[in-house]
Known about the structure:
Order of helices and strands: HEEHEHEHEHHEEHEHEEEHEHEEEE
Number of domains: 2
Largest sheet: 9 strands, mixed
CATH architecture of the largest domain: 3-Layer(aba) Sandwich
Radius of gyration: 23 Å
CATH superfamily of the largest domain: Dihydrofolate Reductase, subunit A
Oligomer: single chain
Structural class: alpha/beta
Distance between the termini: 25 Å
Number of strands: 16
Number of helices: 10
Strand content: 15-25%
Amino acid sequence: MTAPSDFTAHDELLMRRALDLALLGQFTARPNPMVGCVVADAQGRIVGEGWHRQYGGPHAEVNALAAVPPETDLAECRVYVTLEPCSHFGKTPPCADLLIARGVRDVVVCNADPNPLVAGRGFTKLREAGIRVRTGLLEAEGRRLNRRFFAVQELGRPYMILKWAESKDGFVAGAGGQPVAISCPTSRMLVHRWRAEEQAIMVGTRTALNDNPQLNVREWPGPDPLRLVIDRNLSLPAGHHLLDGSQPTVVYTNREQPDADNLSFVTVPPSQDLLPAILDDLNARRVQSVLVEGGPALHNLLLQAGLWDEIRVLRSLHVRIGAGGVVAPSLNLTGLREHRALGADELFVFY
């Protein structure tokens, strides 16, 4: 990794632009990582930029170089890219080969690619071709942007986000699981944004039965997530939203059940641990992230197993439920990264 002193404020500015471009592929690049690329001339002016727009389509470097005016001498330019250029043939040719062929002589990279098919090979190929390669500029920001991709590559499972709303007095529902409106309109809109940002959303049996949730995106633009439901005994009635076939849904159960339109049943034998089976299935489906909106039973199960990467808690400043309600999951964490007011609620985020 290159020492921070080797980068200028202008280098950082251009890499931030590349990170902003990468984010434009948030809904369309997955399961590939989001990648942005900026090409700057000898005076530091941007002469071309691009991002990975679509899974299976040209990578960010290809799009950025295509935007560079033909009269530009790329040997005098510097290329900023948020992830190590690929060195293997996948759905597209290697980007490292393209940079070499176009005569690029200077490359700055945010993150190394943890994919075993790349994993430093792109850097090696560029350096062996005589290209100056510097790495690690805004590395933390790059990892944050592609945290879902890094989780799959490094942990072998999707990025897990646990989310719940709790009352001022620490409950998530009324007596017997009776639904209670806890979150304010601002929080509800934010939750729909979160749903659009993640590939899948999960609930357990009790939440599905008590709340009859739709688990779709209604108050924010973006795609509906894949719905995941744990229903060991197939106790959900046919009229529930989660079985309506309106969007792809996977039900994890101990019983055999034939699939239907937009509805898949994955049978996990009672003798088998449920969570590893679910994670294996999600890996097979190439799901990179899961937003868990279940109740305390599911959240506590994941907390005890250490299967979480983020926790997002929306706590009402005014709503109280009182004794007899369903108690929110207990957190004894020191990793609080964000705490802010959100309308009539507070948002707490733990990593």
